[in-house]
Amino acid sequence: MVHVNIFDTTLRDGEQSPGVNLNQLEKLEIARQLEKFGVDIMEAGFPASSQGDFEAVRAIARSIKNSSVTGLARATKSDIDIAWDALKDAAEPRLHVFLATSPIHMKYKLFKTPEEVIQTSVDMVAYAKQRFPHIEWSAEDASRSDLDFLVKIITKVIDAGATVINLPDTVGYATPAEYGYMFRYIRENVPNIHKASLSCHCHDDLGMAVANTLAAIENGVTQVEGTINGIGERAGNASLEEVAVALNIRKDKYPYTTNLVLKEIKRTSDLVSRFTGMIVPGNKAVVGKNAFAHESGIHQDGVLKNTLTYEIITPEMVGIQSNDLVLGKHSGRHAFKDKIENMGFTLSAEKLQEAFTAFKQLTDRKKEVTDEDLFTILTDIQTAVVDVKKYELVAFQVHYGSANLPTATVALNTPEGVRVETARTGSGSVEALMNTLEALIKEEIHLTDYKLNSVGQGRDALAEVHVKMTVDGAQVSGRGSAQDVLEASAKAFLNTVNRVLFSTKAIVQLEPAQA
């Protein structure tokens, strides 16, 4: 069987989803989970795009040992130099350098002739080869490029030192037949193609990203690129979890292997969804809440008699537990520690105590604590930034009634350590609370989106709020959770503002990576 390498770009292309911004601790937590998931290569970011991205890529490169870490670079020496500084301490550093090859991109975006594009690509690959042992060269908008031009430029960049050739369907334009044929044409016409691996990278603008990826594999691709939950620019990328399960379930059609640990799919999906604020639709393949639900009486009857009648994927295959009610108010510290380790979390002694305290507080108000509740608590604590001055909620009160004007009173501690308090009204209780918080914060704020979700089920479920806003002109998102909807809203608001403050401070000292 042919082995296919998995290239995950959740932390680069995925983070380019509108409204998504991950801080360094969140990126590192996702990177560690991707390592457990078994991805061969993870694209940690675009080091030259910002100081924050540079620091995050460097932290991931120093932490991850069982996956190769790469960073994106434009075809410029400065981008390549910055990428090397961020990646040089990685166990297996590699570079991903790209340049557009389609006529429309070369003419209207690059203002370069085809020969200039070839020369730039060759020069930059050769320059990168002086440092990086592995270089992936991408022909941006390959699916709308001239095939004979692709043959010409690929031949030359391989001679210059490229070890992986990526031909992306950048705008999600290709059909499976067209995309597969492109790779077959390259394999048959590039004389030195045996010196490099072929890679595919598909976008989902026409809903064919996964189908195109599978077509590429059938035509000789040995590396596939995608993201968790299919997040990314515009309509997103190929969903890696869907590709992985398709290859596993349809081995009769796809005789290929990967290093992915399928039982880590659900946890990886949940982690990415929570940190990005991009909720997984209920009908999403493989990881949606309805993926294993059956409402039709005919379906229910069939599943009860034999699950294979309507379930081609078992919940256990992707890491979904049939019963996650595990801990209650009488559970002790040892059982709690055992449980969170089984969930894949490794906490320092200090954070373990903080998590246990939060768990005990929750059991005082909630009869049954589920895995989803624990996941929410643990991700908040694991990615909390300490020793940084920030806004802190001291107390709040909201007066609301059908015949009264909603009014909120809030007390905060500012980053300077000053307690401030005021009250404001609004058309509803949430708006009154947001107006009050905004009045207490000196930064200029504009709320652009507000989403409320329940964690789990039942009237005592935790509330989780995701907000997007501009803070002093910067677009940023944040989240907060609590049993009370208004408290979760206040936490999300402050979490979002504090993210901007964190980004202007020195990068926090990270805990050492756990094996």
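The above is record 1. Record 2 follows with the same two-line structure.
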Amino acid sequence: MKVYEAIARGLSDLGCTELFGVLGDGCVYVIDSFRRDCNGHYVAAVHEGGAVLMAQGWARVAGKVGVAAVTHGPGLTNTITALVEGVKAGTSMVLLVGDTPVIDREHAQNVNQPGLVAETGAGFEMLRGPETVAEDLARAFYRAHCEHRPIVFNMPVEFQWQEVEYQKPYLRLPETRSAIASSKDMDDAIGIIASSHLPVVIAGRGVNDPEAEAAVLRFARRIEAPVATSARGKGLFNDDPFHLGISGTVAHEVALDVIGRSDCLIAFGASLNKYTSGERGLTRGKRIIQINPLASELGRWTPVTVGLVGDPGLTADAMVKWLDEAEIPGSGARSDHLLEELKTYHKNAQKKLVRSTPAGTVDLYEVAFALEEALSKDRVFVTGSGRFMFAFWNVISVPNPRSYVDGNGFSSIGLGEATAMGAARAAGDRPTLLVTGDGGFMLSGLSELATAVAEQLDLVVIVANDGSYGAEHIALTMHNMDPGISLLPSRDFARIAEAFGCNALTVTSSAELQAAMAAVATRDRKRPLVIDVKIDAASVYGGAAIARP
């Protein structure tokens, strides 16, 4: 077969069922063979950056390596921001990129592709020749899985039409589950826990399966500690009455008080970056135990007292065993008083958080609480980047961490839209909710609506339309400067979305919000629903610097 056919067949044999891309002469033959010869599903994006983001959204929800394909030159340069997003978010994906002929130095699309990729932080894997297709492609997938970042697979066009005898790629991923049965670090960790009066357990997306979640919760209950999550650990511990919610810059008042007063933090599969640590305010002066399968992650963002290299679930169970053998009592931190505080907060949250806004607008928290009730709880939730995030992160629930995806690793607007479309492809029969801002929606969301319509995605898009670049509006206002330059022209996103083939509504009042929620419940699940929600720019609250989870 031809090399391009061998690449397509290799993708299929490596388990790739979804390929996102934009056609170009450096990748069109691979894409066509994948679709035609391998019965793979090809999602045609409008923009190359969108294709990469779709693959990342798919990977985050599916828990597998996502795959995209673009052409050489401008095809690759159009993916740069999306690749940086994947690096910063730690997303495993392979990007197939055509490359111009080596002999044609004057080719219009000839650029230094390895150099471009290196600057993004992504990995680079070269197709060395026709006879190494299987080995090189398998290595790209292996690296994407183990390095938790995008790997660019470079395909010189002069190879693609050469004949090759097909060899099936061989890929065996390493077993990463391990636990420390005994060590000085484990001794120190147990000693710290034994002397703690107010420990708090924080879990991140490294607690990535129900068994690990159950083990970490057993540990938390054994030491009588309340639990919290990082933003990307959202969905863990949903049914635990001592769940504090998200730790860090978006934490609610009870969580901030408890984590702030704690004397010990035990972090399972959480990076403890500056957002989870509340700009270090929640970790400073505390004894911290961090558990992660990768030694490189221990103390990477926040200095820790003890770091344990091990699987979160297995390590949690090992720690319970040690505590039981030493007959160490619980801390008592899961108190009746804390339980009552949490119940009172959740009972009064909606009344306390929702504010009145000028006529023709609605409050973001009002929107968030309405969506929480209107949409099926078994859903995928995606956010772009913007100050609207603060109202939705603590209100919209998900069943597990893989059901929450943010396009916010690079703190760039305009990345959530395409990410949500890839997530929706992986969601199966579940609906996908995207919350984005008007600036980000204009930047890239509108063009990719065509993709969402073509793919018949069950996608509900909430455009938080405050007619401004929100963070800049806050920054100018905080410095007593005129925020006028941050304001955007009035746009009717509902009518624009309808022109793309979506169902669409505009919300300017509480009554219209309730009508929109009824439309959510009765929506056509094969047609995206876009809801343009008018927000007052001066009434939105949130940090001037957009927080990244």
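The two ends are 46 Å apart (CA to CA).
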